Amino acid sequence: MLASVTDRQSRLGIVSEPDTDPAARAARELRVAVGRLHRRLRLVANEGGLSASQSSALARIAKGEADTAAALAAMDGVRPQSMAATVAALEKDGLLVRTEDPADGRRAILRMTPEGEAVFFGGRAARQEWLASTLREKLDDAELATVLEAAALLQRLTER
Q1: Which residues lie across from 111 on neighbouring strands?
Q2: Which of 15, 43, 57, 139 sits between 20 and 30 A of 70, alpha carbons compared?
Q3: What is the mean pLDDT of each run of 10 residues along the chain (160 residues)?
Q4: Are 98 and 112 a contacting pair, CB within 8 Å?
């Protein structure tokens, strides 16, 4: 199977970094590990059956990043029609409500309902608890200290 991946990469013009470059190797290993962790956390928190786009919309509204369907669409890089369908599904499930913008009656402001908040914050709590429990079960104190050091380094990578 490795040969087929390498063959596909060659045909696509993708050049793999040699294992002698520590930064390239770290980038590859980190990307794979973070991807797996992200998928696992999504599964833990998604017991309510929300799609990725629905979860993203709820998160952006909860964090105050967006309050209209147009803003959500722009932030998620999707067509307004796609976001309208996402918002409609969240409304139907009772997780969001639309209210008229007092400053511009043509705009609809999106707000989370108490049910929406319960789903969003419950998912966050579930992810936190799963990760803390898994860390406790699988790592010793020295490894936990290493994870904390690595988390600090990763925070530095994400600073602008």
Answers
A1: 97
A2: 43
A3: 61 66 93 92 74 89 92 93 95 93 86 91 88 96 97 88
A4: no
